[in-house]
């Protein structure tokens, strides 16, 4: 059977027991041009929560009754397609389920073997997470040597990569923002940021001013809301704000921005992006990220949750801050790049 | 004597009787390298109100006891400078007063005669107002043929010029936002916008969606706050928001933005600018604006208030919406370009 987690009702805040249901359906049959994929590991990303809302977005909302949309990796166990061979480890939109069909409507990428990297690392650093950090910083944010860079969600998978790429690109100072003393310690000690501010301590705008007295040249925003507002109060002349995510807003709990006028007086800009637009250029980012990994310049952590049935709880970890590093759900631990 | 309006105390909302004081001082003496200017007409701009706040901005706040900072035009009545001849009509930072010295610290530009334009027109269309509309739309907003353009403060001096320049540059649709039925009628009938929405009628986001069903490609924002938020809800893919002013916020009455996440899902950007940065390129804008004037493509109105002593009330008109067109204070009506 194919265990599937489907959306039962739209959550108003955090995902709870009523949001999803675990159902069992027959394993899909592999037809012509298709490959049957055994799902190994799911990538748990904040954007999944936005797809659960009945609101306009960059993809349509997940329909009620539909399998929860998610990227992930798996192994091809049967193939009637020229694209995939049995035994290939592939990455794509697996959804929260045990089995999925790869075909023309749901295209998967074959992951490289022989790099000496495990599947979790590839899903994190060489996957959407690392690629998002790279293009957000380099392309949208136009990072340049000597920039003072601030990153929110700094202990998270994307944020921790952003700070390290900024360092490698010659940032003068890299300051993280995270929630709680433990995470702030991780940001400095594990990921090598110069400093990390705990937004829960209050007076964030004032503390940012102390940390960045000449202002913030580049801000990579993963959270939105009050934290974004505090950075706007400190934006430097011609500063750039890269809007990657707004996790503080996804659960509907956000407050409004009041400091946008600073964009005028500081001639600053704020720009959003969606990493799917960069798909044709993914290899460019992966080459640079693989180089950083090989040189030991990119520290990364993965937070593994075991069991498909725990995917909803794993998603909630992103919002409660209970995760450490990239959150992945291991559905079948026999799927590997070894 | 030189009548001067000085800042007595910082206003918390609108300027009132306690904010300024009219004082009389001796007419300044013209020294070497200086010219004595008789002030003719003052340009009344929303930004003056921001200079009255004790807050960081693109220029220092006006000090208590200092003459209120303002641009304006006047005539040179005495000169010990190579730059100015007696009889030149000059533009610069006159302040709210009868007399001012032009010198190395306070540089004035000699205005062109013989264009057949009166001083009020020059102060409006060829002055900071028209130049702001031009560079905001063309340079910051990167307007292109076929854009759906929305402008707030559309009945105002800057907004009305923005809509007409957008039309001349090939916009597919030009929609204004203004306060009240009379202003909305002016925007369509006098300035030739396709449509104008009264923000006071409520449900602005929904009505914008009806007016621009495929979204807003370029939004020129003069007001900030709720109106900006309603446009963000309707921003098109890769839309551009040009932040020129935030008049709804200057008096401290603003509400926060909640729709900035739309910048992410629509890959859109928001950028502020200050027209002073474009000073080296003013002639470029003036040439194009003078051409539009000559071809009758640029309808403009000036709202003249007579008497230096009425400058504070004239400033309040910008916030109450009581003005129609570019607000100017005539200090001495004998100063002209004839």
What does the model show?
Two copies of one chain form a homodimer. The first copy, chain A, has two domains: 2-125 and 301-330, Alpha-Beta Complex (Quinone Oxidoreductase, Chain A, domain 1); 128-276, 3-Layer(aba) Sandwich (Rossmann fold), CATH 3.40.50.720. Helix content of chain A is 27%, strand content 25%. The first copy, chain A, has helices at residues 47-51, 119-124, 128-140, 157-168, 181-189, 204-211, 225-232, 247-250, 262-265, 282-294, 311-320; strands at residues 2-7, 20-25, 35-43, 71-79, 89-92, 99-102, 109-110, 148-152, 173-178, 195-198, 216-221, 235-243, 269-272, 302-306, 326-330. In chain A, strands 3, 4, 5, 6, 7, 14 and 15 form a seven-stranded mixed β-sheet that branches. In chain A, strands 10-9-8-11-12-13 form a six-stranded parallel β-sheet, sandwiched between helices. In chain A, α4 links the parallel β8 (148-152) and β9. In chain A, α3 (128-140) crosses α10 (282-294). The interface between A and B is medium-sized, with 32 and 32 residues. β13 (269-272) of chain A pairs antiparallel with β13 (269-272) of chain B, so a sheet runs across the interface.
